[in-house]
Amino acid sequence: MSRDVWVVDLETTGLDRNIHLPVEVAAVNLKTGREIRFVPFITGDELGKADREAMRINMYYEQGLYKDQLDRDTSIRCYQDVFELLQGQTLAGANPRFDADMLLIGYEWLLQLEPRLPGASTRVEAPWHHRLADVCAYAAGTLNIPPDDIPGLAGVCQLLGVTNEAEHTALGDARATVECFRRLYPGKDQ
């Protein structure tokens, strides 16, 4: 059975799954190149919990992401659309476990905000296939890199000669990850 591969990348207010939330979401279809990007709603209170270093790295203020922030209902619809696209598909990325977790966390957080949408469940299940595709692990195996020395996205890009045009942005990192997958598996109808 063939599944579409969707490279997903999120920029977040930090790395703690119990505190932090997504501030930018992007997905790129490996085969078609279709791109999705949105800046989900987040409250000022939640931004106040942000890790300063994470916000510096993702350049939240420098990029002016707050200007692109959607309202709550539009954000929920964007998450719904992404989850529908990912139904039964392969979620991939440079750290797909983190991005998958944060995608679920961000969506659930919005659904739990008052006022709740009539009839809407606040529990979200992962719609994607249970096996995630990690470009960093894939590169390590392909390039004979020991499992205790797996590079991050920047290292994989360097090894493969890929330029990340917008490092530490959700869409920039997703695009770079797609290009890394393509170079690691050339000629395959991805």
Automatic annotation (TrEMBL):
Residue intervals of the Exonuclease domain: 4-190
GO molecular function, one term: exonuclease activity
Annotated organism of origin: Mycobacteroides abscessus
Designated name of the protein: Exonuclease
Gene3D superfamilies referenced in this protein's UniProt entry, alphabetically: Ribonuclease H-like superfamily/Ribonuclease H
Annotated keywords: Exonuclease, Hydrolase, Nuclease
InterPro entries: Ribonucl_H, RNaseH-like_sf, RNaseH_sf
Superkingdom, taxonomy of origin: Bacteria
